Write the structure tokens for this entry.
Amino acid sequence: MSRTLIIGAALSALFIGLALLSFLWTPHDHTTLNIPGKLQPPGGAHLLGTDHLGRDILSMIMVGARTSLGVALLALAIGLTFGVPLGLAAAMHKGSWLDETIMRGNDIVFAFPLLVMAILITAVFGPSATNAIVAFGIFNIPVFARVTRGGALPLWEREFILAARVAGKTRAHISVEHILPNVLNLLIVQGTIQFALGIQVEAALSFVGLGVQPPTPSLGRMLADAQTLVTLAPHIAIVPGVVIIGIVMGLNLLGDGLRDALDPRLQRLRT
């Protein structure tokens, strides 16, 4: 097992574990305001200090990480649910009108930068976690469609696929039974990348006020609230910033490690 995979898995497990723990326990109630105790430095009863409203930053971080991970995970699920079948269908009917329609539709979505499209959707339909999920979910669909199609096309020329066709299996049956299992490694790696990107998008949207709305904590909004107080209490900006960097770095390292572990060509090179 590579060092990259171990470090990525450890970082990801740490932050995901903190997020899951917040369902059961946090050091303090993240909704409780304590104005006299605002902007306390890290230490004592508040391990990471308090924010401008006196809320415990560690508790806010735990719930905020849960929010970010939830938004990214649901957006990832949308991309996989719709993108993978579209990619399989495009590869199954390579060169047909269906393939062209799917891929040109992907090009249209890719013509809009991710953040611009996300801001547009949330600005039109209103700022909320749901609209942030929909915006990034739509962007994920063509990503997974392209990855699936790219991985599936060479497989259709392989001998075991030709044998399955000779045996009388339909294209749809072959796609599900033989093609999909052989592109799972690509989807897993791409999934970790999109998961990390989803956390960045949620933080960016919340930072500009178009993501998760109060009173639900968000890592991005914690940064937005701290920007005018950085010189007075730098910890309220540093902590959520480090957490975002840690989550994204962990997931990216996890993706790189999984790619190395799951790609047989890289395995042969190492041996």
